Each structure stands twice: as structure tokens, then as C-alpha cells.
Amino acid sequence: MSYYVTTPIYYVNAEPHLGHAYTTIAADIIARHMRERGEDVFFLTGTDEHGEPVALAAEREGIPPQELADRNAPRFQEMGERVEASNDFFIRTSDPRHAARVAEVMQRVYDNGHVYEGVYEGWYCPRCADFKTERELGPGHTCPIHEIPLEREREENWFFRLSAFEDDLKRLYAERPDFVVPDYRRNEALSFIERGLEDVSLSRPKLEWGMPLPWDPSQRMYVWFDALLNYYTALSFARDGEDLTDRYWPANRHVLGKDILKFHAVIWPALLIAAGLEPPRGMVIHGFLLMGEKKMSKSLGNVLDPTEVIDRFGADALRFYCFREVSFGRDGSVSAAGFEARYETELANDWGNLASRTLAMIERYRGGVVPDAEPDAELASGEDALAGVDGVVRELLDRAELTQALEAIWARVRRLNRYVEEARPWDLAKDDSQAARLEQVLYNLAEGIRVLALLLHPYMPETSGRLLDALAEGARELDAFGARGGGQAIERIPPLFPKLD
Ligand code: MSP
Questions:
Q1: Cβ(296) – ligand 1 distance below 6 Å
Q2: Which residue of 26, 125, 359, 389 sits 20 to 30 Å from the alpha carbon of 366, by its own alpha carbon?
Q3: pTM of the model
Q4: By alpha-carbon position, which residue is closest to atom 30 of ligand 1?
Q5: Could you give the CA distance from residue 460 to residue 32 in angstroms, rounded to a whole number?
Q6: Does residue 358 share a domain with residue 300?
Q7: 159 part of a folded domain
């Protein structure tokens, strides 16, 4: 089955920071997991290059917006590579192929009678490129996100008749209980809809950096329409000479932060319906990574550079840390000290040591060949059983419970560590009458770390891949505990997570 997953496209007005990397990694974990389930996955990320935030940043630097975009887009591309994102395409909204497709879709919205001309007045945040309703304003008419005073703007422009889609949206939410997960974000979006929808402006008369409206080129399209459509347009040109739209549309999962919920959970499905297209199947909303108490953001200047973290701890450790430390969906603080502590106790000790010990004992006691034995009932059943862990993780990841799934895996890592301590293979090895038991324990350890490495692979592709190679496991498909017998020649490898200096 096809499975299409996306990240938001990143504004090129800033350099990538850990907050952006976080969204990308979340989507990547889902994409990799679905590939391991044999799905036909397409994973999209990219950059949002039009609109006021970008135009303003370029103006501050005294360069044309396209130049700023050309300079910063590759940085987001590199960030993706550094965090091991496995995206199948990287879209840039300044791509003329995107523009052509956007014009096509927007013309359909116009032809279907869902736009009109009018006057807009409201509080506008240029950094968000968004008008704020009275309810959303911070103290003293400020932006609650950027904490800057807002201006009252009045403009003549085109409107999208969002209010006409209230019933369609309510029906969509009723038919698909998991349209937005987690459910507290779904409730937020739904109550926004139930309070009554206002039409939204679709164009900006003053803006120069953006796409002209197909039916009125004197106005530029509001950046959010051009941006949201990336999810749809990319499929038409991501592969040379091939249109992937029928294969992958509607998208299965848009992954995004809570700050852009309204655009995705309300405006986006309405726009698609207005154009006669199918809305996405679902979306996954995450919280913010905080430094101290505040959202990490370029404008607040409290950013952690992911490349610095990766240089020190490795990309896998960063990926692990973000989803272990902060409960996915909620806001949570990250810190350098936190990284270090988790790296030492969980990655180096719990997991890295378990892997090293297992490989070392198989080499020492059985000449480097995994013995052939049966799953140990003790491990296979009971609390945190190894048997069935693949199903548990699948089910959690179907609901985008990235932190809970990781905890389910980690409970088994700890379970295997207890198993080694209780079974004491080093004592069994001294006693010839215990040979069969020793083989059973070694088999169970090898099989246990194989199954866990497969489950961890979406979270930590590099180190899990190395461990799976060492275990002579070539396939990257989820597998059940006990599904593989023994007989493979293993390899010793250097520590997966070497101790930090
Ligand atoms: N360009 C729009 C998205 C258009 S999608 C059609 C945009 N770009 S952004 O660069 O500002 O943010 C992109 C993503 O990064 C959002 O999901 C946002 O939530 C996420 N993050 C940016 N800072 C973040 C944190 N500090 N923590 C977690 N994610 C945050 O919005």
C-alpha cells in the first residue's frame, strides 16, 4: 500500500535549528517504520520560500529574496542529511513547476466560486504572516509567539470562503476520529471550527514576493496557500517524466508543530475540498522543544545548533534523545546536560553494552556463531515480553505515539539486561553440563537484540544498521521474536555509543 508522509516546508528566512530538525526526524521515524512494514512510502520535505517572513529577512540583509532562498534552502537540505532524513524529494516553492501547479489548483477554487473580493482589517504579525483574531492576541496586541507588537492592517484583497466549509469539515472530523492526532489537538481544531469560521484573505496587495493570483495578477497569493499546496504539487514533478499524484494522494500523514495546526487542520482540508480534491487522511501534531521555558526559535535567539549536537553525540543519539526526553505531542525542555545523561545511561550502558556483551559472549563461548535454540519462555511472556513487541510498537506508531513506542522498546532493552544478569552466561560457560542452557541464553540474547534493533532502526538508523549487519541480519523488515533460528556468523564491532570524554 502507498504511504505518503510530509514535514512542513521550512521558512528560508532563518537557519535550521533543532526545532526544525525535530519535525523532520519525527516524520522520518514514521516513514522508516512504514518502509519496514513493506509499505510503498513517499516522504517529502522542503522549503517555504515566498511571503512576508522571507521578504522581510531579505530586506534586512539588503539582498533579493530569491538570493536569500538560494542561500538558505541548501542549509535545510543539509540539515536533513545530517539528521539522516530519508526523504524521497525536497521541494522548494520557488520551483516554477510548483508555481504552475498551484496556479492550476487555485484557478479551480476560483472557478468553483469559492473566492470573492473584499476588505480585511485586523491585527497582523509579519513574522507569522498571519492575522490574529482577538482571542489569539497576546497582552497589548502582541504576537503570542514572537512577542512583538502587532500592527492594525486594512487591505483590499481576495478572500477564500472558508466559512462555507464548516459542515464539510465537521463531517470530515466526525467520519475520521483520527484525522488529527493526538486527540487534544483534534479537540482544539474541532472547537475552532465549531466556534464558527471566518473567511480568510487569500492575497496581499502590497506584497511583491509571492505568486500572482491567476485571475488577478495585480495581487500576490498569501504565502500559506502556496505553501500548503506543496504537499500536492510535489507529486507531479518529484520524479522526472512521472506523475506520482494518483499513486500517493491523498497524503497519509502530515507531521507538524502545534503552531501551524489551524492552517493544516482547518484551512488546508477546506481548500482541497474547494478545489475538488481529496483532503489528507490524517495529521500528527507535535509540541515545542523548549530551552528553559521558552520555545526554541531564531527570533528569540535560544537555539541549539543540531550540527553541534551531532558532532558531539552523533545523529542517532540526537534522534533518540528528542523522542525519549520530550513526550511526543507535548512541549518539553531539552538541554546539553540532559543529552549527556541519557547518552551515558541509556545509549552507552543499557543498549550499547547489551549489544557488545552479546556479540562478545557469542564469539568467546560459541566461536562467533549464533547457537540454534528456542525462545526462552521466561523472556517470551509476562510483562514487557519480547514476544509480540513488534505488534505493540506497530499499534503505537499507527497512532503516532513516538515516545510511547520508544518506551515500549526500551522496556524490552531493560528486560534483556535483567535476563543476562539473572542467567549469568559467564557462569554457565564454566560448567559443561550447562552447555544447552548457555546456548539457549545466547540465542535469546542475539534474537532479542535483533528484534529490538529492527524496531529501533527507524529511530536510530545508523547504529541499528551497524548492529543488524553484525548480527548478519540483512533484511530491514519488522520481525517477531523467535522468527529467526541460529547458525549465523556474527561480527564483533566497536561500541555503538562510545563513552564521552
Ligand atoms: N513555512 C511554515 C510551514 C508551511 S507548511 C505548508 C512554517 N515554517 S517554520 O520554519 O517556521 O516551521 C516549520 C516547523 O518547525 C513547524 O512544524 C514548527 O512547529 C517547527 N518548529 C520550529 N521551532 C520549533 C521548536 N522549537 N520545537 C518544535 N518544533 C518547532 O511554519
A1: yes
A2: 389
A3: 0.94
A4: 19
A5: 10
A6: no
A7: yes
